[in-house]
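Hey, sorry to bother you again with one of my protein questions. A protein chain has come my way and I'm curious about its shape. It would help a lot if you went through both lines with me. I owe you a coffee for this, so here goes:
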Amino acid sequence: MRTASSWTSLGVMLVVVVMMVVVPLASGQTNPSQCKQERTLISNACSPVIFGRNPSAECCERVRVTHVECVCPYVTPKLAALIGSVQKRIQQIESCGRRVPRNFKCGSITTPP
């Protein structure tokens, strides 16, 4: 049985993944350690989004600088099913000043055409 803490962590990761899925960022050389650090930073910065808050300035900054290749491998069909409204997450991303491309595939999610 999952604890409240583990469900909260899963929820944060879901929001973070959705926010990263719809925003392809500059590709660059990343290593596993860097990716782990980026996922931790964005999880911490964007955790209030899971509770219905709008993304903070810090969350938006993390969305803009985190490498998409660090997040997309975590988008499984099971995770994608739990995310909910991709359209709502797209609106949140766009409120951060990022354009969301159409038909962008990241893991198991593809943004609408």
Observations:
- Helices lie at 4-21, 32-46, 57-65, 77-83, 86-95.
- The two ends are 39 Å apart (CA to CA).
- The CA atoms of residues 102 and 113 lie 5 Å apart.
- Strands lie at 105-106, 109-110.
